[in-house]
Amino acid sequence: MGTDDTVAACTEPLTRRRVVIAGGGYGGTTTAVRLARSLKPSDDLEIMLIEPDPCQQALSELDLVAVGPSRPEFCELWHPTVFRDLPVTVCYNRLEDVHAEERAITVGHRDDDGQRVEYWRLVLATGAIAFVPPVPGLAEHAITMWSVEDAQELQRRVEAAFKQAARSPHASERQRALSFTVIGGGATGVEIVGTLGQMLPHRAIDAGLDPADLRVRLVEGRPEILYDLRPGQRARAAARLKRMGVELVLGSMVERVEDSEVVLESGDRVDAAVLVFCGGAKADPDAVKWGLEFDSSGRLLCDECLRSPAHPDVYVIGDLAAFRDPATNRTLPMLAQFAIAEGHHAAANLLREARREPPEPFRPRMRGEFVSVGPRWGVGWMFNVDLSGIPAIVMKRITYVKYWYSVGGFRLAWKRLREMLAMAR
Ligand SMILES: Cc1cc2nc3c(=O)[nH]c(=O)nc-3n(C[C@H](O)[C@H](O)[C@H](O)COP(=O)(O)OP(=O)(O)OC[C@H]3O[C@@H](n4cnc5c(N)ncnc54)[C@H](O)[C@@H]3O)c2cc1C
Predict the structure, then answer these.
(1) Core-most of 108, 123, 206, 278, by most CB within 10 Å?
(2) 22 Cβ below 6 A of ligand 1
(3) pLDDT of residue 2
(4) Each residue of 316-366: pLDDT tens digit?
(5) Where are the domains of the chain?
(6) What is the chain's alpha carbon radius of gyration, rounded to the nearest angstrom?
(7) 3-130+282-365 shares its CATH topology with 138-279
(8) Are 35 and 347 in contact (CB under 8 A)?
(9) Is the CB of 369 under 6 A from ligand 1?
(10) Which one, of 406, 386, 289, lies nearest residue 341 by Cα?
(11) What pLDDT, in 10s, does the model give residues 42-62?
């Protein structure tokens, strides 16, 4: 079915109670699959997923696409495959506006082909985007890491840097051309720099270059990396990076970025022929225009059942949602594991509501957290036990195979596992 036909199908008048889910990432896809699999005819529900991209991008594995052999499909989970046998209408378009008072949304651009879709319940799961602070020169020179396109752009810049180095007769020029700098010592920055540190030497040899000319650096304003982990795990990750030849430049913020150079507040300068910024995320910026309540960072507020406080017909989940954990009184971090858990919970609550039962509060539980430091090594914890090395990376990968299994069954999980083993080699 072409896009036009799909949009036409989306906007048919409301005959049954329609659940509209906007955003087909970790949270939205989980909600749609879980709800579709649990439906009984007596529930009298129809499900519509609105997502512009025909495939879900598995953001947590982007580092491998960025530096490994170029295989973007590794990060992609095709919606047509996932929803082939499920009662879900997938509308490959964007949610443009929400009219919560009228229980309706606009799909597609409101000045162009914008069309009205009515709903019984709406689930907003449109995620987040990379946040780039207004540091002079940063947006012009750095790439962010938030999509397969970003990862492919990094691939292109690595290739261009190798070509530049191969043309240079002097070692100092080659070293400058082969300077790779990642800003941000959180999980994403460590994963990207770890993969660069492990894979670039092999790629340099394949390109006829001397790996000794490579300079891979991680710049972090705080004195340590991976602040979300315990100090012992931070130290292990730092030691692993150093063993790979990654230089840690810690304790000074970036003041500005000039052509191929990062200038720090300390006055130090760091070569950066290729620069990646992994300094943060911001909830979907369009969401603040939808007439729903949001917090100071632009995440939409939700109650303990994951519903927008003034509009209980609207659920908000994943990175977009500012869910305050009652156990800690803190807003949940933007993590796939919470988006998935909220997706399951939202689906269960929608079913309860369809069966005229009250929705239940969401009680988040952080069972563990893992960060890869290169494709074959990791750090993290699970059930309060610290893990590092191969067990940690295996646990990280298992988490995502589990996700693929939960939305795509055994066939997709097996495909994923095979691709993952091929990429890590
Ligand atoms: C490089 C990287 C590594 C990460 N690693 C980890 C990790 O190891 N562990 C972990 O727990 N988390 C990790 N995360 C965070 C994790 O990816 C996010 O928390 C998770 O994707 C949030 O899920 P979501 O469903 O809220 O949003 P997403 O998965 O981002 O999905 C949002 C979807 O909404 C769609 N969309 C956007 N706007 C609209 C619109 N107007 N209408 C319709 N659809 C729209 C988008 O196309 C997208 O498909 C990582 C993130 C990045 C960027």
Answers:
(1) 123
(2) yes
(3) 38
(4) 999 999 999 999 999 999 999 999 999 999 999 999 999 999 999 999 998
(5) 3-130+282-365, 138-279, 367-425
(6) 23
(7) yes
(8) yes
(9) no
(10) 406
(11) 999 999 999 999 988 777 777
CA angle 289, 291, 293 (to 5 degrees): 105
Is residue 69's pLDDT more than 70? no
Which pLDDT band, with edges at 50, 70 and 90, does 411 fall under? confident
Judged against a pLDDT cut of 60, whether residue 3 lies above it is answered with no
For ligand 1, atom 16: residue with the closest CA? 336
Task: Spell out the alpha helix ranges (H) of 355-425.
Answer: 390-424
Sign of the torsion formed by the C-alpha atoms of 100, 101, 106 and 110: negative
Q: What are phi and psi of 209, to 5 degrees?
A: -105, 160
Please tell me the distance between residue 26's alpha carbon and the centre of ligand 1 in angstroms.
6
Checking if the pLDDT of 234 tops 70, the result is yes
Fold for the domain defined by 3-130+282-365: FAD/NAD(P)-binding domain (3.50.50)
Q: How far apart are CA 307 and CA 300, in angstroms?
A: 10
pLDDT of residue 1: 37
Q: Over 80: is that where the pLDDT of 65 sits?
A: no
- How are the residues of the chain apportioned to helix, strand and coil, as percentages rounded to the nearest 5? 40, 25, 35
Decide whether any atom of ligand 1 lies within 6 Å of the 51 Cβ: yes
Q: What's the gap in Å between 268 CA and the centre of ligand 1?
A: 35
Look at residues 56, 85, 23, 36 and name the one whose alpha carbon lies nearest to residue 411. 85
| Residue type present at position 5 | D
Alpha carbon distances (Å) from 275 to 163, 187, 218, 358, 401 = 17, 17, 10, 50, 30
**pLDDT tens per residue, range 389-404:** 999 999 988 888 889 8
For ligand 1, the distance from its centroid to the CA atom of residue 127, given in whole angstroms, is: 5
Q: Which two tokens mark 239?
A: 């030691």
Which tokens hold the place of 37? 């699999």
Question: What is the residue with the minimal CA distance to atom 39 of ligand 1?
Answer: 126
Q: Cα(319) to centroid of ligand 1, in Å?
A: 7
For domain 138-279, give its CATH number from 3.40.50.300, 3.40.710.10, 3.30.70.970, 3.50.50.60.
3.50.50.60
